Amino acid sequence: MKSDLVAEALRRRISDERWSIGTKLPTEPELAGTYAVGLNTVRRAVGLLVDEGIVVRRQGSGTYVAGLPPTPRRRLLGVLVPSTSYYYPRVIEGIERAATAAGAGVILASSENRLALEQEQTRRLLDNGVDGLILVPNLNLTDDPQVHVDALHRLPVPYVLVERRPPRPAPDDPTSYVVTHHAGGVFAAMRHLASLGHTRIGYVGRRRTGTSALITEAYELATASLGLEAVPEASVQRVEWSSEEIHDYAAVCRDRGVTGVFCHGDRDAAMLLGHARRLGLRVPQDLAVVAYDDDIAEFGDPALTAVAPPKSDIGASAAEFLLRRITQGPDVPARRLELQPRLVVRESCGGSGNFAGTDRRVRAVTAST
User: Of 339, 321, 319, 361, which is closest to residue 105 (Cα–Cα)?
Assistant: First the structure.
């Protein structure tokens, strides 16, 4: 209700401006103008403060501070990620930045990509009294990801998903999430390779990660949409790539005339660079490589062109919305936000001009759905 919001604004103003007992408040018409609400809304808000003993009305005189509001308890956000060592450190940084700006605290936990530990860590965060949760559930490890998401509806505190969304949501699904528009990043990478003249573009993919299905589907769609030639032998997904498997893959690229490769992961892309050189392939003259993640891409030899998800912004957006949901209650509409990644062009693609030591960035576009 608007009166609740105005009442909270008045409590903060009394506290922040350190109005002493006996200070006269602005008139109700003045408050209505300040907060852009009607007089009745202001009267209800002031009435709430009268009931709490914070202000007192004096007939014919005005409204005066009668007591200071209690110091609000510091909000506490629980954050559960699959890993704190890869991909998510920048997401966590964004969460902590937004929480600190709002005067809130953060408790961090990791599920270590294990379903049982995810449930245990969620209980621990709740036992620590968090006011809300930012979650990255291991949907890729469940038999039915939608059932897993539906179970979250029973949590006793508000929550926001990060880099995960309900796979088969009901029309009235209340889940809020903030995600990277992964398909947009894949298309940017594939379009860039195609613009450089590559028509046979391979794929070093992953299986059973939180985003592997999305990335693979986007690669296949981009190949068809851009009129590129499919090379099934050079489109491979694995749970983990060994050095030997990357070496064999590089040989396939050499033998099948594949001149560009899109890799789902910086580390696999970096391994591919080394094995390509050992097989006599020059990067980028014979084989251009684009990675997805941009965690360590700039340290490749040569530096890797990479799709860079907006990880810090993802975390900050999730924290800001969760704090709004905590403070304003369940009437705040669910939020579903997609952020477009950017393509950072480095030496592993070549292209027009000399990119050595420079980054050419494709402008990020933010879209809300």
Answer: 319
How close are the terminal C-alpha atoms of the chain, in Å? 25
pLDDT in tens, 272-324: 999 999 999 999 999 999 999 999 999 988 999 999 999 999 999 999 999 99
**Rounded Cα gap, residues 176 and 245, in angstroms:** 39
- For the full predicted model, state whether its pTM sits above 0.85: no
Please name the helix (run of DSSP H) or strand (run of DSSP E) that holds residue 152, with its range, or none: helix 145-152
Contact 140, 212 (CB under 8 A): yes
| Helix H or strand E encompassing 256 | helix 243-256
Structure tokens at 221: 């769609």
In whole angstroms, what is the distance from residue 207 CA to residue 205 CA? 7
What's the CA gap between 77 and 111, in Å, rounded?
16
Give the tens place of pLDDT for each residue, 6-61.
888 888 888 877 778 889 999 999 999 988 899 999 999 999 999 999 999 999 89
pLDDT value for 73: 75
Report the C-alpha gap between 35 and 364 in whole angstroms. Answer: 35
Look up tokens 């560009």; give the residue. 260
Cα separation of 123 and 106, whole Å?
16
Phi, psi (degrees; rounded to nearest 5) at 367: -130, 135
Look at the block and give the residue holding tokens 């693609």. Answer: 349
